[in-house]
UniProtKB/TrEMBL annotation:
Family annotation (Pfam families): Neuropep_like
Signal peptide annotation: 1-30
Subcellular location: Secreted
A single Gene Ontology CC term: extracellular region
Keyword RNA-binding found: yes
Family: Belongs to the NICOL family.
Record's keyword annotation contains Secreted: yes
GO molecular function: RNA binding
Origin species: Columba livia (Rock dove)
InterPro entries in the cross-refs: NICOL
Name assigned to this protein: NELL2-interacting cell ontogeny regulator 1
Length: 92
């Protein structure tokens, strides 16, 4: 029952990062079309910072997904344990 919320959270996160990625690409293309060229020497630093930011964001997403998965598994095990305990009590 908690599984759809995990998937919906992941879908929303992927959607948000996709939109942010598309908007940033649009901004870069719009900046290049306006004639304000950025010298090649300064671009790697900006690209590096953007890459590091996206890498940290991806790591945060992985941690969140792992935590949600672990939490879901824990809740499912608790539900199974309760079901078994209730079944055991009903027999005795």
């Amino acid at each position: 029952m908690a599984l759809p919320s995990v998937w919906s959270t992941m879908h929303v996160a992927v959607l948000v990062f996709s939109v942010v990625g598309l908007l940033s690409v649009r901004l870069v293309v719009a900046g290049q079309d306006s004639g304000s060229a950025i010298p090649a020497e300064s671009r790697p630093c900006v690209d590096c910072h953007a890459f590091e930011f996206m890498q940290r964001a991806l790591q945060d997403l992985k941690k969140t997904a792992y935590n949600l998965d672990t939490r879901t598994e824990t809740l499912l095990l608790r539900a199974e344990k309760r079901g078994l305990c209730d079944c055991f009590r009903a027999i005795h």
